[in-house]
Amino acid sequence: MKQYMSATRLVTKLKMLRSGKKDKSFLVVEGITDFRLYSKFIDPSCCEVIIADSKQNVEACIKVFNEEKALGILGITDRDFDGLEPELEVIPNVFVTDGHDLECMLIKSNAFENICIEYGDKEKYMKFESHIKMPIRDYLIKQVALIGYLRWYSLKEQLGLRFSNLEFEKFIDTKTLEVDLSRLIDYVLFGSKKAKETESSLISKEVKKLKARHHDEWQVCCGHDLMVVINLGLMHVFGNYNAKNLFPGQLEGNFRLAYTKEDFKQTQLYKQLVTWENKEQGYYLFKK
């Protein structure tokens, strides 16, 4: 009921705002970090960015305006696992990130190289890449995707596993940044108060089955998890002295600062927003 009421208040707020700004577009986003990033690229003279407080509220709000055939109102949400579940509903005027979430979009861009220039030690970075025999970003996404597969399996099977406040050092080797799947599952089961040996082995088997299907790891991996592991890498493996006191929230903020309009223009999300502009009869998002 609380979620519905929040969506209702959001619709009311937008209608009130729009009554005095009929020529403006309104972009509805999930939360404050989305607001901070997309506001860098949106022209405030022609579009206002509104925080909905949740993905569900964005979707519910846009559905209402779709039913009313209102022009100039759209939403952006994280893709989450939706791209891996093709039977899920597609909502017109709701656009999603290319990968799992906004953080994955940041990490996949040139912002990653810029962050590594700022916080990385070139010699340590090259030595680690030589050891793992692949680019560091590719290695990290493969490791962190294991956490994503477990999250996805829990969601699919409605296991109710808890992933809040994970202590990553409990299941990641801070020297190799390798995720130990068995330790991860045991740790999450214990934190979820569902620690059973048979359940652990079954979940491990099913997670490996999901992984064997070779999904796009950028859609599987949760960007917040990836940020934490990049942070660990900078602190313990390939970072310079600047990274010693770095923490994930700070790192995410630095990624948003390093992410440019040119980076955004490379995404499918940006291209879809431009197409939306061209169809919306005088409603705009970007400077002309």
Question: How would you concisely characterize the structure shown here?
Answer:
The chain has 288 residues and is α/β, with parallel strands linked by helices. It is 55% helix and 6% strand.
Percent in strands: 5-15%
Mean pLDDT across all residues, rounded? 94
- How far the N terminus sits from the C terminus, by CA atoms, comes to 42 Å
Helix content: 40-55%
Could you say which overall geometry the principal axes of the C-alpha atoms support?
Answer: globular
Give a quick account of the main beta sheet: strands, pairing sense, barrel closure: 4 strands, parallel
Which regions have little confidence, pLDDT < 50, spanning 5+ residues? none
Q: Over all CA atoms, what is the radius of gyration?
A: 21 Å
Instruction: Give the class from helix and strand content and strand pairing.
Output: alpha/beta
Give the SSE order as H and E letters. HEHEHEEHHHHHHHHHHH
Per DSSP E runs of 2 or more residues, the count of β-strands stands at 4
Helix count from the secondary structure assignment: 14
Strand order, main sheet: write it out. Answer: 2-1-3-4
